[in-house]
Amino acid sequence: MSAKATSLSRHLVEEGKWVDAQLSELPVLLRDMGYTAKILAREIRRAALVGKLGLVGEKNPSGDAQKKLDVYSNEVVVDAFTDSGLVAAIVSEEMEELRTISCNDAAEYLLCVDPLDGSSNTDVNGAVGTIFSFYRRGVAGACTDCEAELREGARLVAAGYVLYGPSTVLVCSMGRGVNGYTLDHDVGEFMLSQENIRCPVSGAYYSANLGRYHDWDPNVRAYADYVIERDAASGRPYSLRYSGALVADVHRSLLEGGIYLYPADEGRTGGKLRLLYECLPLAFVVEAAAGRASSGRERILDLRPASLHQTSPLAIGGVDDVQLFERFVATGSP
Ligand code: AFP
Question: Which atom of ligand 1 is nearest to the CA of 260?
Fold first, then answer.
């Protein structure tokens, strides 16, 4: 690595020059998320050696069995942002209620987080992730109106994810462009590795749990049938890539185009993925990179969560791929 390589901290200072003066603490929050990710990366790497694999025996608010690493990751995130003094409250996949952290005037932000996305992969050494977003509060002090503020889309001011794969990558955006940083374990820093990521309008891959095919709406099934038809002119058939970790599959779509889908189905009429800490943050990142995120009928960033753990169908990736999916949802054909 060249001595000229740019660290996350340094790059955030540069990027921070472009954000609104009111948002001057955003680079600090993203730096703190980088620090949190380093702790989690270390613990995920050695989980099998320190007794952190397997189930806790409890369910989270969405009814999923909690893994030890889910609980640990949640504690690390909550502790890190409790210490920051900048966050008023946290919404997490692993906590039923919004957790109030601080009612100080300096605590101007709300954090929504899925501390460990794809936790079914932990025990098989598969990719996992962390998904996060920051909302800027309108009112300082008491947190009585925090849930209402999370329904104001314009308050979503930064978002990103961390992918713990063969390397640990943090991808984030403060609204203007999207950058990727790779953790250099020797230096102990995230280093800028993908500057100004642009999502290709289409790609050669689709990601979906085809085990649910027979539970999907016929129009969604028609789309899945269409992408695997042979048609060289339109780049079909698409290849299937599905890892069980949203972050890993969306990362592929962001860098290479294509689409990730988790549609509604007979058992989950509102979809599976949670709006506040899965769909909205990833939609913010992908759209900042010129991609698209949709429920199939509406733009994800226009949706307003009625409750903390509300779900939505999700289609996310290249603009052309997602718009094609939306046409199928509406009409059953391209
Ligand atoms: P969690 O581990 O945070 O609950 O996330 C898993 C996930 O929401 C997402 O990462 C996957 O893409 C999706 O669920 C996998 O769901 P299926 O097992 O139903 O395909």
Answer: 12
